[in-house]
Amino acid sequence: MKIYTRTGDKGKTSIIGGRVDKDDIRVEAYGTVDELNGFVGQAMAELDRNQFADVLDDLEKIQHELFDCGGDLASVSKKRPLKLTEEAITYLEERIDKLVEEAPKLERFILPGGTKPAASIHIARTVTRRAERLVVKLMKQDESLSLVTLQYLNRLSDYFFALARVINFRLNVPDVEYVRSANVFRDGKRKGKKDER
């Protein structure tokens, strides 16, 4: 079986329900979600199953959800049902709350780093934010796009932030605090900011 088709040699690509240029914002959005999935896989390869079984189960679930997310973004077909559901968002919120309880109290901004797997998760977090920005841009062109996709990516970036802190905590490595940061968090939330979840 050949994996190349030559159908994209002139800068076009197939999506569900049509064809678009490869630099179309829709392709940028689902391509970034695919990139994110790769970073999640990298982080999984760096985590020990004995110490992070719950996390690895989460991340495998997230990989499937990201594949669903990419498929939803790649579709312009009105007949295709969405695969990503609100239940995925609810699950992330539950896991975020548990991770925040496990990690040490947060007072200052932190820098990406500490341990290698935590750093990988921080990369996943920043790529998630980029995917979220691209979805916002796409929604301005396609108002039929489901809000679930945007909400899921928003929660996912929060999940990755909380997870990176827990990874460092379980590996007995402190978070790297931003040295010029004031005490900006109260009870794990940003002072002066409403909970945007």
TrEMBL record:
Q: Which Gene3D superfamilies match?
A: Cobalamin adenosyltransferase-like
Top-level EC class:
transferase
Q: Which residues cross the membrane?
A: none
Q: Which UniProt keywords apply?
A: ATP-binding, Cobalamin biosynthesis, Nucleotide-binding, Transferase
Which is one Pfam family of this protein?
Answer: Cob_adeno_trans
Q: In which pathway does it act?
A: Cofactor biosynthesis; adenosylcobalamin biosynthesis; adenosylcobalamin from cob(II)yrinate a,c-diamide: step 2/7
Can you give the residue ranges of the Cobalamin adenosyltransferase-like domain?
A: 3-166
User: Which InterPro entries has this protein been placed in?
Assistant: CblAdoTrfase-like, CblAdoTrfase-like_sf, PduO-typ
Question: Which family does this protein fall into?
Answer: Belongs to the Cob(I)alamin adenosyltransferase family.
Tell me the NCBIfam families matching this sequence: PduO_Nterm
- The name this protein goes by in its record: Corrinoid adenosyltransferase
